[in-house]
Give the backbone structure.
Amino acid sequence: MNGIRAITKSYWLPLILVLVLILLATMPRYAPPYMDILFISIFMYVILSVSWTAFCGPTSYISLATAAFFGIGVYTSALLQELPLPSIIVIGGLLCFLIGLLVGLIALRLRGMYFIIFTFGLSELLRHTMIWYEINITGTAGRWLVSLDPEAAYYYMLGILFVTLLITYFLRHSKYGLAMRSIGEAEEGSAHIGINVNMVKIITFAITAFFIGAAGAVMAPRWSYIDPRLAFNPFLSFYPVLMALFGGMGQFYGPILGAVIITVLSDMVLAEFPLYNILLLGLIF
């Protein structure tokens, strides 16, 4: 009986998620057009928040590199916009995966405040490098892209969201998930019992970077105009942290709930008080 209850408990959450995804897949057929635009933002922040939590939650490392990987995905889409969008999404994700491996090799030997500073510095380095490049090399202040239809962007982002949730769920319940939780509780002890601590951290960090970059690759044509300040916006590094903390990192649905609530709340505040939205959000947080 206990075994049956355990199996039922382990499968109810994926079942609910599948039902919700089926509902979301049919929503553009009957919902007003504005809902597509709102849900694209919700999907984007859920992807960022879940990806951030998948690595940072169990390991207790705080990464502020989300804006870096998102911006790489955005500029991949801008530079390769003549290719089919599915190819761009895969290329942007893979590029972020490879850069995530490189960053992991360099930075994941650091801990605590040093790792936080390094990852935030990476985002700022890429932002200012792209600003310099566009001003001095291309002579532009930004780039225009062929606009992506909201319904198409909705389904692309929903597809990335589905894959993100699927991979992070199985990652959480795999031996890598156990290893990451062990690292978060006692990293030195994990190494002593035979866990390849650096490999687990680097691979997981790179996997989560893939989904962040893929989301950025979709949002670039959805925005239709990009520049370094938009692509590498520092808020994109801090928002997923706030969303994960707000929803709770102990449960799989925590960052999803936090991302949905804060995205809707931000949209409402921006619509009603456009000049004071940052101040009001700060007070609410």
Q: What stands out?
A: The mean pLDDT is 88. The radius of gyration is 19 Å. The chain has 13 helices and two strands. The first strand starts at residue 143 and ends at 144.
